[in-house]
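Hi U.,

Before I forget, here's the chain from the pilot set. I'm dumping it here mostly so it's searchable later in email.
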Amino acid sequence: MTLRLILAFSILAFTAVAEAQCRFDPLDRGRVVKISGAELPAALAMPLSDLSIMRVEKGRFVPVAYQFDEMDQKGMVWFEDSGFELAGSPGHLDVADQLLMMLTDAGPRAPEGFKPDQGQVVAGLTVADDCHFYLVRGNDARSDNYYVAHDIASGETRTALYQLDVDPDNELNWHYLGYRGYQGEGSIIDTLKMRMSAGVLSRFTRMTLDNHNLRPKRVGFSVGPIRSVMHLRTRVVLAGIPVMTIQVQAMRYASHYEAHTYAKIPDLYRATLKEPEVSVTVDGNDQSGAAVYTANFVDNPVIVDGKADDQAFANQTLPMDANWILFDSKRDFALLTHLTVPEALMNTPLALIYQDDASLAVEPEQFHGQLPNLGYSLHGWPQPEELRFTVSLYFEDGLKGFAADEFARQRSAEVPVHVSQ
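Structure:
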């Protein structure tokens, strides 16, 4: 399927919302419905190839885009070369597996006794108050809609809403981000930046690794109708000693990007490296005039001006349960970032990184200056031996009249699903 054809389907799918006879909220465009196999007990152990998702449209059941991803025992999408074990039986629905659909593909409720032309309904899925999907077994019809076109070889991603180009040999090096309707010039961002630093034996002998050193190797990938997934492995070497391996899954969706990180922390690493820090930031490209909000600054955001004079904002710590950062370009593009960690890591110290300085160089970068560079810094290692966190980047054209905290809450919230058997 060509990029042009995929994008045509994608655009048609977005404009088909009005025909679905469902009412959606302003922030529902591009939102993904995600449900685990554990929530679909009637379908457990069924072959995935026999299952599909349909909705009611114009008096009949029609297929919609969906995706099943089999999961591994670490809670990540399973790939054979990842080194992680599959959680369940291959090719069959297990409790850990994930089913994904686009929220705005839901349709009206099926009339009582209404059946598909082929196969049978296994479960009904209700979303957005009174909109519905139907999990069907034994129906051969499939939707041709793809919401993500991701060319692994070139690093190019196209959806109906955004364009993302990255270095195909290093997922951390973002080259271009564009958004439909954005009123600025060139790429919205400079690049993505990941850093790891620690004192070797002493906090005074500090070493730092960045995009250049943390070169992730791709060990698996898949491109589906709802999301693409790349599994990347990075071996961390400090002072010539390989101390840990970081596993990252980069996921592209119709209107957002996620990076899921997993690492096991050996005792040697804890004992040898002092005061470790891990940071992930997005460097903006000439975003002067933009407003930046956090939960601590809902009503008084800072304005990007290229001057390092917002120290009260830049030096804030972030509560883990309200760690969102909202960037509004004022040029028909907004970026919401959100960090998710498991319950065991909720007490991990978390700091905001905010650099608004037109003269500051922080490699890697394509364009001089930090206008602005914003993101998160995790300090120290948690008590559990495993480090897990997810950074989510949500793309929108603006706040749509919402206050910053309400926008952040609604845009990052999971879509609730009621399952009826």
